[in-house]
Amino acid sequence: AQKITQTQPGMFVQEKEAVTLDCTYDTSDQSYGLFWYKQPSSGEMIFLIYQGSYDEQNATEGRYSLNFQKARKSANLVISASQLGDSAMYFCAMREGPRDDKIIFGKGTRLHILP
Amino acid sequence: DTGVSQNPRHKITKRGQNVTFRCDPISEHNRLYWYRQTLGQGPEFLTYFQNEAQLEKSRLLSDRFSAERPKGSFSTLEIQRTEQGDSAMYLCASSFPDAGTFNEQFFGPGTRLTVL
Lengths: 115, 116
Prior knowledge:
The complex is a heterodimer of chains A (115) and B (116).
Chain A lengths: L3 E2 L4 E5 L4 E3 L2 E2 L6 E8 L6 E7 L7 E2 L2 E6 L4 E6 L8 E9 L6 E3 L3 E6 L1
Parallel strand pairs in A: 2-12
Antiparallel strand pairs in A: 1-4, 3-9, 5-6, 5-10, 7-8, 8-9, 10-11, 10-12
Chain B lengths: L4 E3 L2 E4 L5 E6 L6 E7 L6 E7 L2 E5 L7 E4 L6 E5 L8 E8 L10 E2 L3 E5 L1
Parallel strand pairs in B: 2-11
Antiparallel strand pairs in B: 1-3, 3-8, 4-5, 4-9, 5-6, 7-8, 9-10, 9-11
């Protein structure tokens, strides 16, 4: 069964607008972690934000915030005030268990920011 | 440069040849991971090391694949008798697990393999 589902293969957003990238996950563990990574055309995976399953507040990092809805098993990434440099692939990922090292990635969403 | 480095960045080979990739992790990181990313997909876990010990291997890692980390520092990933299906980006990541962190993995730029 697919563990991480990203239903938006591609998105086009006007510069300066906010954008939400969807992510749902599937796990039977009570303790897990959720990540978002950005992959520009250069190929390097850039860590954006992390949410632990026991974290009560939604994670925020600058313009990035994670809308964590545990009961719905969703972990959407919100980018506020989008910039041209935000154009990239975005991957939602999950680590199952408290210290498990294996990260499972979704298929990604390609975000295009329009000037 | 204190990031994860990978060499070569690109490799083109003919089917049936052997290839070897190298990953140099961030110096104080004791865990090292290999992932494979095919076109249009997210990275898939292959294997990981804690120091020199290989602790987990994915079923994706066939007998033609072998990874080593002999001194607990750099790692090599070798593919023997390459097949066209091996064409992918091979990503390396490293981390330093700590009770106070979420064990963030730092990724290198990847090695893109093309098998002709």
